[in-house]
Specification:
The structure holds two protein chains of two kinds.
Chain A (H helix, E strand, L loop, with lengths): L1 E7 L2 E7 L5 E3 L4 E2 L5 E3 L7 E5 L3 H6 L9 E5 L4 E3 L3 E4 L6 E2 L2 E7 L15 E9 L1 E2 L11 H4 L5 E9 L10 E6 L2 E7 L7 H9 L9 E3 L14 E6 L3 E9 L9 H8 L3
Parallel strand pairs in A: 6-17, 8-14, 9-19
Antiparallel strand pairs in A: 1-2, 1-5, 1-14, 2-3, 3-4, 6-7, 10-13, 11-12, 11-17, 12-14, 15-16, 15-18, 18-19
Chain B lengths: L9 E5 L3 H5 L18 E5 L4 E3 L3 E4 L6 E11 L8 H4 L3 E11 L10 H4 L5 E3 L4 E2 L10 E6 L2 E7 L7 H9 L9 E3 L8 E2 L4 E6 L3 E9 L6
The chains are: A mainly beta, B mainly beta.
Chain lengths: ~270, ~220
């Protein structure tokens, strides 16, 4: 079972896959996937994100993996759906995607032991969790100006039921920028696996149905520019596509000083 | 009827009180920080952290200490995206008293949701002062009482980013929506309390919040 949330002809619908790449709305209509607006497949109360959770990516960023997971919370309102747009600020010199396996909670989880943790998973989807590295500071790093930006966490297209995925998920993932592969990895390389994360988190915060855990990204992050099409693929879950757009699309005019800084790499 | 709804995201400003940053002294220039914060420093509070006034802040055991951060809560009433500081307060619906409790932290380098996003750790005042009743949100005294005794005093006049500037800076990259709650930030030297303590916070003209600290039940769900 896989489900999406889409907007079509004046309303929001639950949708399932139909033949030939079309999608079937809950009310029976079958429509082309490009004729709907894809929304994030869930509406989470909490979006929990992992940093440095693949050993190779941690090395890429010159960090040693830690004893305790690096976890932060994102604003759920910054999520955007499949085929959405993400703004690249004009003063950014390094903005990168992060293809991540997203775990969606199905049952409340409070003080759950590792052995029972996977029973609390409703399913999985794909996340592309962008970062603007220019804004990194060493205060509650990664600070939210880097990692919780409007439209900078793409989620979807489908929520794939946990029963369709072996537990724990052993899935290849990769990212393509304008059709060229730039990142690849495998969820077997997670430093802290899903069951550990549910046990760890639920020891101090109750996980609620719909909450999402973004499990981190492997190595291979590269700068993306306005106009780029970024596709994140996870084996068995699908393909999540979105487009980078410039400040002009959002009616923003960058200051000349910020642009000069960007040109000179300050 | 209160002039707001609390249905959105709770965004907390960190290190936004002059004394909270000053308490770090020259450490702000040393590794791992290397320089004082330039942009606004934020954390998100999950829904499970929130409790109503009168309900308990929870700790796991009798030895655990909570730091009680008295902070002004700013309820957003209209969508604020890339707003100018001069217009920012027009997006506020009301103010309320908030007790933001966390485990003490030795470092501010990494996010620490185990200390700061705990179940039942953030108490929200039950009544809100409409925006127009608070002419100057940047001149409010906040008093924290523990077991009836005054334990801390701070003022919103000491905020590094006053309320309007906070809204403007956050809305540059993260739209604030109606029903969102912004916590403007507490001071340093926060009172530390354990299970059994009674806590009250008063903010001039905004109101008074009463809560207490209790032990959480150990059962799993």
């Amino acid at each position: 079972m896989r489900r999406a949330r889409v907007a079509y002809a004046g309303a929001i619908h639950e949708a399932t896959p139909a033949e030939g790449g079309a999608i079937r709305l809950a009310d029976g209509r079958v429509v082309a996937e490009v004729d709907v607006v894809w929304l994030p497949p869930v509406e989470p109360g909490a979006v929990i994100a992992l940093g440095l959770n693949y050993a190779d990516h941690a090395r890429e960023l010159s960090f040693q993996a830690q004893d305790e997971p690096l976890v932060f919370l994102k604003n759920p309102a910054t999520l955007v759906g499949h085929r959405g747009q993400t703004r690249r600020p004009a003063d950014a010199t390094f903005m990168h995607y992060e293809c991540e396996l997203a775990v969606v909670i199905g049952r409340p989880a409070r003080r759950v032991a590792r052995a029972n943790a996977m029973e609390h998973v409703a399913g999985y989807t794909i996340a592309n969790d962008y970062a603007v590295r220019d804004y990194l500071e060493n205060w509650y790093r990664p600070n939210l100006r880097v990692k919780s930006r409007d439209g900078a966490t793409v989620l979807g297209p489908w929520l794939v039921d946990a029963s369709e995925v072996e537990a724990p998920p052993q899935l290849a993932l990769r990212t393509l920028v304008n059709g060229k592969e730039t990142q690849s990895g495998h969820t077997r390389d997670l430093v802290f696996d899903i069951a550990f994360l549910i046990e760890y988190l639920s020891a101090f915060m109750t996980l609620a149905p719909g909450d999402v855990i973004l499990t981190g990204t492997p190595e291979g992050v590269v700068d993306v520019k306005a106009g780029d099409e970024v596709a994140c693929e996870i084996e068995g879950l699908g393909r999540l596509v979105n487009r980078i757009v410039g400040d002009d699309v959002f009616g923003r005019v960058a200051s000349q000083a910020a642009l000069a800084d960007a040109r000179e790499g300050r | 009827m209160a002039p707001f709804r609390l249905s959105g995201t709770v965004v907390a400003a960190l290190l936004n009180h002059r004394r909270s940053l000053a308490a770090l002294g020259d450490a702000v220039h040393a590794p791992p920080y290397k320089s004082p914060p330039k942009a606004v420093v934020l954390a998100i509070k999950p829904p499970g952290a929130l409790v109503r006034a009168g309900e308990a802040l929870l700790v796991d055991d009798a030895a655990t200490e909570l730091e009680i951060g008295a902070t002004l809560g700013v309820v957003i009433a209209s969508t604020a995206c890339a707003v100018a500081e001069a217009d920012a307060l027009s997006h506020v619906g009301a103010y309320l008293v908030v007790a933001d409790a966390a485990l003490p932290r030795a470092s501010h380098y990494r996010p620490q949701i185990r200390a700061m996003a705990r179940d039942s750790s953030c108490a929200l005042g039950s009544s809100a002062a409409p925006r127009d009743d608070i002419r100057d949100p940047d001149a409010l005294t906040m008093r924290t009482f523990v077991d009836g005794a005054l334990a801390a005093t701070a003022s919103t006049a000491e905020l590094i980013r006053p309320v309007a500037r906070l809204i403007a800076d956050i809305s540059d990259f993260m739209t604030l929506h109606p029903g969102d709650l912004l916590l403007a930030g507490g001071a340093a030297d926060l009172p530390r309390v354990r299970a059994g303590a009674r806590v009250a916070i008063e903010i001039d003209r905004v109101g008074r919040l009463e809560t207490h600290v209790a032990l959480a039940e150990r059962s799993a769900a």
